[in-house]
Write a structure and sequence with these properties.
Number of helices: 5
Strand content: under 5%
Radius of gyration: 19 Å
Helix content: over 70%
Number of domains: 1
Largest sheet: none
Structural class: mainly alpha
Number of strands: 0
């Protein structure tokens, strides 16, 4: 039980920070929750209870920002509309290669990015 309690604080903090830093990290949290439910089963075990407590704490700390998000939903939608656009595989490959090269070579590529 002690080990489970020790894990709930870092999990709660990382979930809260993830939501504050990048709103789409909520999708990662949802998939992680599904993973834990598959691994642990739906029975309430110590790990599952600790994870649910950490999730509730993270969500509770994010409630003020949920209010702000709801009040500015149109602006948030306009800001994230890029995620719904389709991009062809060649453009994706070009961007991946440029980003990979940028890891090793600090040079402008001349394409305005």
């Amino acid at each position: 039980m002690q080990r489970t309690r020790q894990m709930e604080n870092p999990a709660s903090i990382s979930l809260s920070l993830g939501l504050y830093v990048y709103l789409f990290s909520g999708l990662v949290h949802i998939s992680h929750t599904l993973y834990i439910l598959v691994i642990e089963g739906i029975r309430l075990r110590k790990k599952l209870i600790a994870y649910l407590i950490a999730s509730c704490a993270a969500l509770a700390s994010f409630i003020p920002w949920i209010y702000v998000l709801v009040m500015n939903l149109q602006k948030a939608s306009a800001t994230t509309n890029w995620s719904g656009k389709e991009i062809d595989i060649l453009s994706s490959a070009k961007i991946w290669i440029i980003n990979l090269i940028r890891l090793f070579i600090d040079k402008e590529t001349g394409n305005g990015e």
